[in-house]
């Protein structure tokens, strides 16, 4: 099977930055390529008007054996100059017929479909969190042959938004088998509760509420907090830690290599990220694969993988009081049982299983 992927969620750099994109989609595409899918190209559309001014030049970059094409999209919103967009894109890309188009995000589907129409044998749309408020969503669902979402929680959100909409499958991500590391839980009542956080520092991650909740917990339970990541809220968060007198047990590490963060997760008891909205959140699965128990947000991301109180915890709103309650609920729980349940749940989400699932969804045959 030959496929062309259209997505802006495909980084070409080697590591993530504060303004960068996660590697989840790239890992899926590279994975199905290794399974035998002929990935003709990954196309990334960009607007002609950016902060740097007008950008017209296309370019083609080879990343791990896959051509990544950056090309301008001419137009605004639902009004698009198909001819100009096609002229620039076809310098690097030819559709021979019979290929499958896989589009992550409705804006990419809209642009690709306008350029190529029914030249592809099948159009696959993969819905992400930001699509729920996209002006392109209704149009995309009407024209897609296959509609996928990135998580079960996102499927439910989509069905609430559009009860008559169909979802043909979930294109989830997973953790490589070789990275899984089970360990006996370290936390004991009266000991130090080790908490790890890892994310981009943006409002939807609800980091200020988590910090305030931890500050309250620290009055009755010794804690140690390691925070990985960066972003626009970095200065405000550091000032908040100082204002709450948390410097003695909270450490900011910035963005670190994946292996370093996994080691920190392996050494921690709890991973806390009650972000909403959230597409999936690979960090949850990575933490669970290292023996952590996670606190997420009900209705988003990891909901559906996590069952509250059974293999992790979910807050229904990211308030200080509810986050604090879940932390203390963990401290009073059957620690060994919940850690074992968390690890077992993660074992169903390996990268190998996610790649086979992705392959089946876009190709319809086993990998």
TrEMBL record:
One Pfam family recorded for the sequence: Glycos_transf_1
InterPro entries, alphabetized: Glyco_trans_1 (IPR001296), Glycosyltransferase_grp1 (IPR050194)
UniProt superkingdom: Bacteria
Signal peptide per UniProt: none
GO MF terms, alphabetically ordered: glycosyltransferase activity
Cross-referenced SUPFAM superfamilies: UDP-Glycosyltransferase/glycogen phosphorylase
Domain Glycosyl transferase family positions: 188-335
Record-given protein name: Glycosyl transferase family 1 domain-containing protein
Organism: Pseudomonas turukhanskensis
